[in-house]
Amino acid sequence: MGVEITVEDDVAGMVDASDVVDLARSVLAQLRISSAAELSIAVVDEDEMARLHQEWLHEPGPTDVLSFPMDELREPLADEQPPWGVLGDVVICPAVAQRQAAQAGHSAQREVRWLLIHGILHLLGHDHAEADEAKVMFARQAALLEEYEESLSR
Prior knowledge:
5 helices, 16% strand, alpha/beta, four-stranded mixed sheet, Collagenase (Catalytic Domain)
């Protein structure tokens, strides 16, 4: 699976890049996305995230995760072949993730995992603007995270 990660130097100590890549590969496999699909992950500081947030969503300040879909791939149905192409980019801000993790009472690593899965689901067309969409997306997100974390303890 073509998963690439770029971590800005000033946030390098805030994430486990190999865990992020392993999680991305695991999630894409669970979602039946072709191993030929490409995904880029960027881990950035708050200044860069604030710039992207303003540029693309016209909202001030840094956010936790942004997704930029490319080929508009979707999860295949049971009788469909796994799609391939360029999924797009997921951008994560670990400083925001750390604050959110502290508020949620779990580790920053778990928060980064949660955000990565969230970003990948957005790339595949999931959304949470409506209550019914949110219910589906967040349940899927939780199941994917649980499956990955259980696989680490096997």
